[in-house]
Design a protein that fits this description.
The complex is a heterodimer of chains A (251) and B (341). Chain A has 10 helices and 9 strands. The longest helix of chain A is centred in the last third of the chain and has 17 residues. Chain A is an alpha/beta fold. Chain A starts with a strand and ends with a helix. Chain B is mostly helical. In chain B, 64% of the residues lie in helices and 11% in strands. The chains are: A alpha/beta (251), B mainly alpha (341). Chains A and B meet through helix 2, strand 5, helix 3 and helix 5 of A and helix 1 and helix 5 of B.
């Protein structure tokens, strides 16, 4: 199985602080991958490197077998929703759809239109006037309507209220079920990931603590911790276990 | 990308078009009358050794107050326009996106960063140049009767030669080069500083420094000035200083070349060196005329360095080309920088 995201010794330094150091991981295609870890583990840095927003200080990262954002063709294959789900505050919802249509050769206008209608967004509304949940949905619409092979979502629901969070994940799940797409979704809220993810990567201090299909990991964990154990228990178990003293010291 | 850039700068374009339309109406209402006054003044066919001075004076006395104010406003607006373009169009071009954190959105469409930056620079830069170009075209046309009058008026009038620091900067094509350059400085400052207000301040300071320094230290070196020696006219002496019984004279050059840009003039004696004149008693009193007559008998001369008026268009093209080239270089830096971040 090919990897949608592969990094080797990947690191990013800001002045004297390493936001991500020596990160080696491989994410297989065809999954909805939950990237979990405590704040400061390097999730956002890793995903920004994968989306080509940042340049690595050390190591390499490959997305769908190529350097991120290296060409228009490569950009067209990856959809990215950044942490605070940015949109242009002064542009209307319709302007955003037009922007997507003009700037992406593979734009799926019907998909975008249906999503906006389904969400009940007013096309004339300025994006700056949207609620946090609506803004996140608009950002997601832009990312999915370019019909990417890989969708990268960096904590898209962290700042949303529980209802908006559920609606967002719902509409994400609907898109995933109807299309051939791999997804990498980061969050520190494991309970949310449980709904959509079938593959889990736990990142602690730039290191992959555990990675694998959610079902398999959970089954194994339940043999140890009992049948009541949830995915959240599993993640907490791995977060609290100091398997790597060096990494613990860095934290 | 073109569409997004247009959509983002639409409001600026409309504001610029509205301002230009207002200027066009005001100038169109007052310009023909001014042109008519000039045509009937006879300045166009005057003889510089006979009647130019007086014809120019008559023409200038007929001007209304509004014309005088508009003339100065035209100069002021063209001096400020490039700086304003740099501050309000250049500096926010990148900082606006940095502050709203919209880079992830912009850079994850199927458009490379190089293209993103190049299209923004190209389109808004073109808008800046067109705005400055239309403005200078209108103001140059409106002001040309007065500019000509001031140029033939001779040395005792306001010294507004077309090659001089103020008129040259605000006429014909140079404002287009300045606008492109100021815009590029603004974008570069925004890209390096990433916050709008400090970038605006830096752009303003940077462009103003160039705008001030250029005519003082740099422009005259673009084409080497002409040197000429003329006899000193004692009537042109405007200051006599006496230090330790030695006289130091300052005088306007006796110079009949219309519209020339005089860079310097130096008083020399027969030997070609600065004369050492011991102040005679006649010059220590208050009888200025007697003193001037005494100086006249020394047959002093003046070495004048100047740029002839005929070089106006050589200077215009050269300077515009230099500023456009600088703008392109800065734009190239911006594209390189955004790629390697």
């Amino acid at each position: 199985m090919t990897a949608v995201l592969q990094s080797r010794g990947l690191g990013k330094r800001y002045q004297h602080r390493w936001a991500l150091a020596d990160c080696t991981l491989s994410v297989p295609a065809g999954h909805v991958v939950g990237l979990v870890g405590p704040n400061g583990a390097g999730k956002t840095t890793l995903l920004n490197l994968a989306a080509g927003m940042l340049k690595p200080t050390s190591g390499t990262v490959e997305v769908l077998g190529a350097r991120p954002a290296r060409s228009r063709a490569q950009l067209a294959r990856v959809g990215f929703v950044a942490q605070d789900t940015p949109v242009y505050a002064g542009l209307s919802v319709a302007d955003h759809l037009k922007l997507g249509a003009r700037m992406n050769p593979g734009w799926d206008a019907a998909l975008a239109r249906d999503r906006i209608e389904h969400l009940g967004l007013d096309r004339r509304q300025r994006a700056g006037k949207l609620s946090g949940g609506q803004r996140a949905q608009l950002a997601l619409t832009l990312a999915v309507a370019k019909r990417p092979e890989l969708l990268i979502l960096d904590e898209p629901i962290a700042s949303l209220d529980p209802l908006a969070r559920r609606e967002f994940l719902q509409s994400l799940a609907e898109f995933i079920s109807g299309h051939q797409v791999s997804v990498v979704l980061s969050s520190h809220l494991v309970s949310d990931l449980e709904r959509v993810c079938d593959y889990l990567v736990v990142l602690v201090a730039s290191r992959v603590r555990i990675a694998g299909e959610a079902g398999g990991l959970l089954a194994a964990h339940r043999r140890l911790a009992g049948n009541q154990a949830s995915l959240e228990d599993l993640v907490l178990h791995y977060l609290s276990r100091s398997a790597d003293p060096a990494a613990e010291a860095r934290r | 990308m073109t569409w997004l850039t247009w959509r983002q700068s639409r409001a600026q374009a409309i504001a610029a078009a509205a301002a230009l339309a207002v200027a066009a109406i005001v100038l169109a209402l007052t310009g023909p009358n001014l042109a008519h006054l000039y045509d009937s003044s006879g300045i166009a066919t005057c003889n510089p050794y006979r009647n130019c001075h007086s014809l120019a004076g008559t023409f200038e006395n007929k001007l209304s107050k509004i014309d005088a104010v508009l003339y100065l406003v035209g100069i002021g607006v063209l001096l400020l326009a490039p700086a304003l373009i740099g501050v309000f169009w250049g500096a926010p071009l990148v900082t606006r996106e940095a502050e709203a954190r919209t880079f992830p959105l912009a850079w994850n469409q199927s458009v490379t960063r190089t293209q993103w930056m190049a299209v923004k620079l190209g389109l808004v830069g073109l808008l800046a140049m067109v705005t400055a170009g239309v403005l200078t075209l209108m103001v140059t046309w409106w002001s040309s009767p007065l500019d000509t009058s001031f140029n033939v008026g001779g040395s005792s009038r306001i010294s507004l030669t077309r090659l001089g620091p103020i008129l040259f900067d605000t006429r014909d094509i140079t404002p287009v080069g300045y606008a492109a350059f100021a815009f590029a400085i603004g974008v570069t400052a925004g890209l390096l500083i990433r916050r709008t207000v400090p970038a605006m301040g830096t752009a303003l300071a940077g462009f103003a420094a160039v705008q001030l320094a250029w005519p003082i230290w740099i422009r005259q070196h673009l084409i080497a000035p002409v040197h000429t020696v003329v006899a000193l006219n004692p009537g042109n002496i405007f200051q006599i200083k006496t230090i330790n019984n030695r006289m130091i004279l300052s005088a306007m050059p006796t110079f009949s070349q219309q519209g020339a840009w005089v860079l310097s003039s130096q008083i020399v004696g027969q030997s070609g060196r600065t004369p050492e004149i011991t102040a005679p008693s006649v010059c220590l009193g208050s009888n200025m005329q007697a003193c001037q007559a005494w100086i006249g008998r020394l047959h002093l001369r003046q070495i004048v360095a100047y740029e002839p008026a005929s070089r106006f268009w050589d200077f215009q093209w050269t300077e515009t080309a230099i500023f456009l080239a600088a703008a392109v270089a800065l734009a190239g830096f911006c594209v390189w920088r955004i790629r390697t971040r």
